[in-house]
Structure formats: C-alpha cells, structure tokens
Amino acid sequence: MTVITDVTGRSHLYNAVSLDIAHLAPELIQAGVSAFMVDTTLMNVSETTKRVQRAVRARNIALKSGDKVSKAEGATSGHLFRGVS
Predict the structure, then answer these.
(1) Which of 19, 51, 63, 71 fits a disulfide with 23 by CB distance 3.0 to 4.6 angstroms?
(2) How many domains would you assign to the chain?
C-alpha cells in the first residue's frame, strides 16, 4: 500500500490494486449519482488519459442505452457493495 501526505499534512492511503467502478455507471446513475471523479494522483499522463477516457465512455454508454462497459481486468470494485457489520 502507498501512503501519500498532501500539502496540508493529511495522509492518504492507496490500495495496491487499482479501483475501477466504471462498469457500475448505470447503477450509480440510477441511484442518483450525477458526477464522477477519476483520482489520478499516482498516474502518469498516459494512464490518466486512458482512465478518464474510460470513465467518460462508461458514462456516455450508461446514459445513452443503460448498458455498461466490462470490468477492468485486475481491478477491484473496493467495498462498494460489501455490507458493514
């Protein structure tokens, strides 16, 4: 895991596995999410370009037809659908 301290002294803990929820865009939009953000803090320009293009494509497909893009290989969806006990 990577820990980064920002300019205000706050620490941010990053997973060793990339988070990808682009394939969940239809469900998120239906739930009322109206904006998406791509955190590119640890990415170079090429990676940033690819990830932003993927997010925009996923949003456009979801809005146009309700379909979804496939989940990115090797990525995690995090704890988005895991219950809290």
Answers:
(1) 71
(2) 1
Range of the domain at 49: 2-65
- Does the residue 73 lie in any domain? no
Residue 45 CB neighbour total at 10 angstroms: 8
pTM, two decimal places: 0.81
Q: Residue 26 carries which side chain, given as an amino acid letter?
A: P
Average pLDDT over residues 62-80: 93
Q: Which two tokens stand for residue 18?
A: 């990339």
- Residue 30 located in a structural domain: yes
